[in-house]
Amino acid sequence: MKGKVYLVGAGPGDYKLITIKGLEAIRKSDIIVYDRLANENLLKEAKDECEFIYVGKKSNNHTMKQVDINKLLKDKASEGKIVTRLKGGDPYVFGRGGEEGEYLYKKGIDFEVIPGITSAIGGLCYAGIPITNRNYASSFHVITGHLKDDNKELDFKSIASLDGTLVFLMGMRNLKNIVDKLIINGKEKDTPVAIINWATRPYQRVVSGKLDNIVEIVKKEKIKPPSLIVIGEVVNLRDKLNFFENKRLFKKNIVVTRAKHQNSSFIEKINNLGGNAIEFPTIEIDEIIPNEKLAKSIKNLNEYSYIIFTSINGVNIFFDRLYKLGFDCRKLGDLKVVSIGPSTAEALKAKGIKADIIPKKYVGEHIFKTLKKVLKPKDKVLIPRSLNARSYLVDNLSNICSVDEIKIYKTVTPKVDKKNLLEYLDKELIDYITFTSSSTIDNFVNILGTKNLEKIKSVKLVSIGPITSKRIKSYGLKVYKQASEYTIDGLISCIE
Length: 496
Ligand code: SAH
Prior knowledge:
4 domains, 5-stranded mixed sheet, alpha/beta, 22 strands, Cobalt-precorrin-4 Transmethylase, domain 1, 32% helix, Methyltransferase, Cobalt-precorrin-4 Transmethylase, Domain 2, Rossmann fold
C-alpha cells in the first residue's frame, strides 16, 4: 500500500477544536508525530496499534530537529504507512508545515494538508477577545515575535502605524523589545494589551494591561510561553465576551481516579464545564479467564429467571463472552434483566437489551429491596460481577432463592506515576479528588502511600455514593460531598 502524510492542524488546545477531517486522519493513521502544542487527548482517538512519536518543540528547545522530523515523515510514509503530523493551531501559521510539505513534495511523497484553527484567532476567542470588531479594529496582523535570524529586527515603524489588532506569536522572550519599539514608533502608551498563556486549555491564564505596564505585569504574574500577545482596543471587550473563563468549573483542578478506559465521558463533562481533569487512574479491569463457570451459565442461560448487572464492565465482559460462544442478545430470551443504575442500563442498551428493573438508588441494598418483592423460592438468579464486590447482595438474595454469582473480572492497581500528582498536591493546586467506587479510594491510598495522606486532608474529596464514602472515612479522611444520585452526573453536580 502507498503511504501518505497528513499535515494536520490540531487547533489551539481545546481538543474539540480540531476539524472533522483532522480527526479522520488521526483515526486512520499508523503513526502520529506530534508536538507539545497539540493536545494529547487527541491521541486517544487513534487506532490501538498506532505508534506515537513526540517531537517536542518548546521554542528554542527542539526535541527533534526539523530535518529529522522531515526525514521521519518521509521514511514512515515510504514504508507504506499512513502518517499524521499533528501540529498545534494551523500547520501553516508559524508551524513550519510549509517546509514539511515542500520536503515531501521534493521526495515524491503523497501528502495532504488539513487546516486548523490557529491560536492567533481561536486563542483570543477563548480569552474573550474578538480579533476584529467594527468599532475597534478593521484588520488584524499576525506577527512572529522573533525572526529566523536573531540579529534582524521586525519593521516596527510599519507595524506601529497599523490600526488593526496586532497578535504576536512566539514573542514572550522579546516582549520588552516589542512594546518598547512600538511606543518609540508612535503607538499610544495606553493601548490595551493582553497576554494569553495556554489559550483554550482548562489552565488558560490571561493578564491584561497597557503597552507601558504589561512587561511589569507579566513579570509579576510569572506568565511564561506559550503565550499570545494581543495589542489593540479589542482587548477591552474581554469583560463582556469572556464565556470560557466564566464557565462554572474554570480554574478547578479535578482528579479523576476512574479506570482509564472508562474515564473519557467523565473527563469530557468536566472539560465542558471548563474544569481541568487530571487523570490518575487507580483501577484497571482484569478479566478472569478462562472462566468455564461463565461459559456454562451462558450456555444454560434459560435455566435462570433473573440476571443482575452491577457495572458496565460486567456487561461488556459478559456479552463479549456470549458473542464468542456464538450467541447474541436473543440468548437472554425472557430472562428478567436487572441493572444497578442508568449507566449500566445504557451499556446494556448498546448490546440490544432493555433493563427491566433499575432500583431507585444505585446500590446493592436497593437491588435487594426491589427484588425481594418479586422473587419466589423457585427463581434462579445469575450475577456476573467483580471479584472485589461486596457479599451483601448475594448473601441476602440467597435467603430467598438460588443464586449463581460468577466472578468475571477483578480490579487491579495499574502502574501510575504519582510524581505529577504529588507536585500538584504540594503546590496546593488540587481542588477536588473524585472517587467512583471503594476500590478507587483503596487503590488511591495504596498508590499515594499512607505517609502522603496528610496532603489530601485539605482537598475536597467527592464520593459517588454511601459505600464509597464509608470507605473514604475509614482512612480517617473527610468526605466533602456525596452525590445524591449515584452516577457520574450526580458526582458532577455536587462539584458544580
Ligand atoms: N501553528 C500554531 C503556532 C505555532 S508557533 C498556531 O497556528 O497556533 C508557536 C507559538 O504559537 C507559541 O509560541 C505561542 O505564541 C503561540 N501559541 C500556540 N498555541 C498557543 C496556546 N494554546 N496558547 C498560547 N499561545 C499559543
